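Two quick folds needed for the group meeting slides. Do the first one here.
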Amino acid sequence: MVFAVGVPIMMSEFAIGRRSRLSPIGALRETGGPRWSVLGYVFVATGCLILAYYAVIAGWTLRYMLEAMLSGFATDPGAYYDRTTTGVGAVLYHIVFMAVTISIVIGGVKAGIERVSLVLMPVLFVLIVGLAVWALSLEGAGAGYGFYLKPTLNEFFSASTLAAAASQAFFSLSLGMGAMLTYASYLSRDENLPSSAVAISMSDFGVAFFAGLVVFPVMFAFGLSGQIITGEIGEGRALGALFVSLPRAFLEMGAAGRVVGLVFFVALFVGALTSAISLLEVVTSSLIDSWRLDRLQAALGAGIVIMILGVPSAYDQNVLGLFDAVAGEFLLVVGAFFLALFVGWRMSDPISELRKGFGSEGLLHAWLWAVRVLIPIVLAIVIFDRGKNVVQTIHSVFGGS
């Protein structure tokens, strides 16, 4: 899904962003007319909703990182998770994380975002690869590799698996919310956009793949695989694996586990911070373009509103789950669907924006065909599946009332 759908959609966002030199709302108005600015507002709203709950989870990551550094992991990770991921403490860490994100975005693209990313992204990759190499040494890790890498074909071809993969690809690549469109508005006219899209997607996929080479061997090596296979952690099994099962494994490792656990949560925090910066930049740049605010006013104002919007998720994980289902799984795909229709059928000569530095005219026409026909069909199926998931989540949160 990353390469078949994610790369073409990223190229689409790049084409709009660089041609217009504007953030999502202005860019779609400029290239498609006033009606298409509505899609830009959807992008900005989606980014706000995602960052609101994402910053709560990132706050947990910050807390675990500091705990590993200062006192080590709690002796009962499950109880600690239940105690610290909701309530006043969760709100405070959410606020601290948002404050860090806001301060970086206020610094601007060059002095803030680019400077931080040039340091943090290589650090993230080195930490993840180092942890994956370490995981090779664990006794029993082979079963984890088998579980992770051996395909189950009947699951592979199920609609729900493909829909979940598409949602994850868009979330991980920051597509369908205008982030890549916004970053492209800062690129030079000489930038090879197709090559950049492939490089970004390969880097993103590489980090995710190596993260799996850490998590699953650790889970199986320390006898925690049943929680994945039987679904013991329930709907929050991914969060449970990160914040309950892995700390339990790090505890069993003794003193070395504290070091490994610290490195793991530092990597997790770095990944969360760089993603949050992208989300806030979408909203900030839109306020700068549409309301003519300066960067300080836009980043601070947007950050505070999003910080407040995230407080309910810090008090109730059901609210967090609802935000994730609506924005993180559904609206991202809806945004990408209409973006594909816009670029394929409304935008004038989108290929011309991608031609610079790219030699294959045939591949560019194949890209346009995919964006016009193939990708909308795939995304329509995903929207239907994720829509059902949203309805189920709403029913679960509100008890069918």
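Then this one, please, same format:
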Amino acid sequence: MELREAALALLRANRRHTLDGHQYTVPSPRTYPYQWLWDSCFHAIVLAELEPEAAKAEIRSLLMRQFDDGMIPHMVFWNPLITRPYNIGWGKKGTSSITQPPMIAYAAWEIYKKTGDEAFLREIFESLHAFHKHLIEHRDPRDNHLISIINPDESGEDNSPRFDEPMKLKENISFFGHMYERWKLVAANRVCNFDVEICTRNHFWVKDVPFNSILIKNLEIFAHIASLLGEKEAETYSLLHARLIKEAMREHLLEDGVFWSGTGEDHELLKVDTWAHFAPLFAGLYTPEEAKAVVEKHFHNPDTFHSPFGIRTVSKQEPSYRPKGFWRGPIWFAPQWFIYKGLKSYGFQEEAEWMRDTTLALVTRNGFREYFNPETGRGYGAKKFTWGTLVLDMMDI
């Protein structure tokens, strides 16, 4: 009960209201004082249990700034005085011009499971369908059924070494050097007016494993929503494309028993060992035999991903591994949560319990910090960071 109260207190403290009546939660008051797409989905998942009406408000505020073509931006700057490099381009005023992993259907379904509010699902149905259609129809320029991201930030893992090769960056690039290169990429995409076919060919074109895995899971959940609402065409569309993306990932991105992100027209594999190997567990992409091999070879290996405090986001064997390097090695709660959900769905109960216990221990020891050193357990980055509240959703074993 103490953890539950602390999580609710944090989410309430980070809650913001706009002059025109919208409500959202900032991930951290000082470091991240805006609204982010997948962060708000994480908030809604937790708030579905704690304060369902606040969870609905979180989703509604995201959808208020959806683009006409269906895209939902990864950042909303509700304060009109705020400017950031990401709000250049063809985005609506006060938003970024790129997106983030599509977790909204999952969050909406969690709200429905707690409330039974079918009217809420009906209210947001067309917006969710339009977002998925945008990704499928605008982010697959060669019709390969693999959805592309046009900036590392769209993965949610800003400076992950998965993206060093397509950005032509060295493994020892600094945090701020990497940030500058991503800002340059947004500016380059502005020049080509965010035309994905042109921009990807000339700048950055990655079929990211976690992004596609998350989309598959959300398409399948959205199909449940469509079925519930009697929307047969949307249900069929969602299941079809979930299957097509699954098949394409197995055909083009699976090698040596794990999935790798790919780049370019020929899907060149970006062979950097990151937690992305585990993301397909969330979407059920591995066969039971493949999943067992991934858990035995990668999850339990202390020389690669398994640390005393959780799963490293980058293998310890990678030259780019940095235990304090933002997304270049530290433990983050969102990957912990995705891996936990995947392990549980495959029946790896002992491993799932370990994920839950290590995540809870990090919160208990450090409070709600942004990320953690996998070798020492020390917390770094933003304070009063909301991702730690996801541990409440991991307490249902």
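Slide caption for protein two: The chain has a mean pLDDT of 93.
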